[in-house]
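Researcher: I need the complex structure. Ligand is flavin-adenine dinucleotide. Inputs:
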Amino acid sequence: MQKKSLKYVIIGDGHAGNSAAETLRKGSPGSDIVIISTKPTHYFDHSLLATFLLDKKDITSLYVYPYTWYKDNNIRLRLNQTVTKVIPDKHELILSHNERVYYDRLLIASGAKPKLPESLSRYKSLLTVFTDAVDAMKLREKLGTFRHVTMVGGDCIGLHLAGAMLKLGKSVTFVLNEYNFWPLEFDETVKDKLIGCLKKKHIEVIADDMTTEIVKDGTRLNVLTKNGKIVKTDLAFLTSGMVPNIDFLDGSGIDVQTGILVDEYMHTSAQDIWAAGECATVYYPELKDYRQTTGEVNAKMLGNISAKNMLDEKRAVSLAEPGKITIEGEDFITYGWKGFSIDI
Amino acid sequence: MTYKRSLTIEICGSSGDRSLAAGEILIKTLSDIGYHVISFDAYPAEIRGFGKTVAHMRAGREIMLSLSSKVDILVSLNDRYAIEQLKNLNDEGVVIFDNRQRDITYEVLQQDEGQTDKHHLGPGVYTEEEGWKEITSEQVSIAGHLGPGMYLYGVPLYQLSQKTTNESRSRNIVVLGSVAALFNIPKNEFIGNLTAKLGKKDKSVDSVVAAFEEGYNYVRENVVKLDPYSFERLSVDRKGYKLMDGNKAVAQAAIDAGCKLYAGYPITPATKIMEVLFAELPKHGGAVVQTEDEISAIGHVTGAGFAGVRAMTATSGPGFCLMTEFIGYNVMSETPVVIVDSQRGGPATGLPTKTEQSDLNHALFGGNGDTPRIVVAPTSVKECYQWTAEAFYLAEKYQMPVIVLIDLFLSLSVRNVQLDPLPDYKKGSNKLPSQEDMKLYLRQKITDDGVSPRSLPGQENGYQVVSGLEQNEYGTPVYDEYSHTVMTQKRFRKIKTALDHDVPSPERIGQKGRVKLGVISWGSTAGAVADAVDSVLKEGKSVAMLKLIVINPLKEKEIQAFLDDCEKVLVPELNYQGQFANWLSIHFQQKFLRFNKVATRPITHDEIEAEINRLLKE
Ligand SMILES: Cc1cc2nc3c(=O)[nH]c(=O)nc-3n(C[C@H](O)[C@H](O)[C@H](O)COP(=O)(O)OP(=O)(O)OC[C@H]3O[C@@H](n4cnc5c(N)ncnc54)[C@H](O)[C@@H]3O)c2cc1C
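Model: Output:
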């Protein structure tokens, strides 16, 4: 059992952060637990985002817990607040509004953000992202204004979104690049099978190519590819995979590679700081190697294990069960994603 | 407005933050776009340097007469003070704060008095009482103190204020722009009111408007609105409505009723009545005298009343006490005077900036001897106007003191009201002697209605002796049993006449016929009762309310009829003893349930609602 007076701060109100908070509260009923999140929305279920586009439900229908859950569990929620700096030596965080927040033990569960390929950075303002509840809310508001969408890259978020777009009667084109179908595990045969399934659903797939330019054409867009194709579209979604959201750790001295490096106990290189979820690059004893993690299953599991370690119960990680994504009745394996079906 | 019947907004800052000015512009704008509004600002009791100020307002589609206990939207211009206000915020309330403060601890130090050398001792505040107290930025930023269901919106108030006006003091204007954008309040109305408030049209006005626009645009471009609140323009015409507080309404009534002399001594919360009249009364042929104390003030007013001029004084509890001797004098000499008492927390100097309804005993009974007087207690700002005007009419007609009991809440709360013009006959009600009367003028002539024709100074043969002594019909001082008896009877007969001719039946609101619970209310608390009754009636509860404005004399027959209809009767009031319930107990054989508070703030409609529901369950 923990000493009563510790203050646990969690950066991130996603699967990892919340599962850690729940474990911490159970293991240490008297401690202070604070969750800080950039997003204005509450902890939501990403797998519901696509169906959210299809109906008129309130945004709260996406939320995993009612806010009273936090009240009942005495967990302080700080939404719409961004951590800009971590100062391990002082056990301090700095928030964008200049507040300094003290912690005894810190969990970084800041998730991931869409990867913007270097070559497309100039076109950022023309690309639409679909990663959270606010994106879904905004997209739903303008559903009536477009008919054709293009997925720039072919990650699972694109697949997930494509299901909803088809249901809404929109036509979809995928322009695949080297990040195709992240984070699916596959070889070339799987890729061909997947492309075949998408085509059966009347999705246009431009494979082995890549987007090089996006040009405004009146109210529409032209997506230009390396092989000279031009896709006329209304919306171009950035679906080229995700990268850990860790810019705010610059200068903190915490070791990072793709994500925050953590040992099998989810501990970072800095004292009293752990990391979990999509922001972490985890050492798996089974693999004797580090692996970038993604997906709800992983995030929850890693959040829980981090919390146990923060409570001084030594627990090592193990690999999560793979999940599957179903397209036209065919299953495709993912690591850590709970999985979904595009056949909605 | 969506989601709720009314929304309560607070703008909280330190004294220098001009949150009250922002509140004024906001309430005016909400009124202009069709909302009923009521505001009641809070400011520190101690008049010194810096302190917390809160502009507090409620706006809704339907008329509202009271405040809510809970706040829906809290705007922070000073997080340290606003944190204290969070306890009143609804679980799903909104907070707007400065999300780019330069350095929170530095700001705090700037805003506090005393030593501010943070480098020497670390972040903290110095006060004489406590010396240095260390403050962490977590303690002074509101961002970490919200409940989990609340919505936090950040706007870089300081930065945008600096950018547009080169100073941080326009944060109150930037935040108004943000409020407009967040809650869909039409921008043009806002800017119109903003420029009207600033008065002049020059470069500085342009920069303030720019500050507003920056706050507006920042929200439109950066903030994701998730809360359900908004104030769209309503299609109602509020052209004839004016925004005013109770003090202004009293002053306006005095002017419109033909008051020609106001004498008073400054006292919170009545001072503004004198301030308004200082500016306005001379334009209407009247005069204002600031006297050396309250005794002198009522002395002046008595003199004017004797001279046949409508005259008024206004004060608060401590000043009212000093006037007591003159109440008896006015009763005995049958001199019309209007005394406005804006009640505050007592006894003695008490709580100068806090509201209470605890001067009722004094208004009803204060003074030696049997001293009949009319006591009226308006329940809203509109009634402050109506009943102050009525007080002049009654005082003059019945030649006696009329006490208008308001309170700090009514005095200072601003509402949008439509005032009905006074009928002409209310403007002159002296019973003057006829030619017949003047053959042998009897100043204290015994009459059926108790009112003796009154000669005014200068009237030929109309001379009279005026003193505080008992008198006979000629006005000559006497001490015999007969004269004292008939004169006392005559003085009380005037009250009876007033009751029969000039006291309207109390208004009954709510369910007709028999009810499970009746609520009798008076003064400003009646507003909260009316709002609460309205709300429980919508839930189908068996409740009715009787609103009493004239507290003495009482319309006993009508009140009795109401009591007969009620299984139980509740009397809520803002004093400890239940002074009004006691007054009713003298008149009616009835057990009154009491709901007494000395809360230092108005009773809110939700408190009354909770009490009604509790009693209905019993
Ligand atoms: C559209 C979509 C659909 C998906 N569908 C599925 C699915 O069906 N099945 C599945 O298993 N997975 C799915 N995923 C993936 C899954 O949602 C993520 O892997 C998972 O959410 C990762 O959890 P996390 O806790 O690591 O991060 P997140 O859930 O992303 O949470 C990160 C949190 O960190 C906060 N944060 C970030 N930076 C800061 C900062 N500087 N300061 C303060 N707070 C910060 C954010 O506000 C957020 O609250 C989907 C993802 C998307 C985008």
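Model: Summary of the prediction. Chain A has a mean pLDDT of 92.
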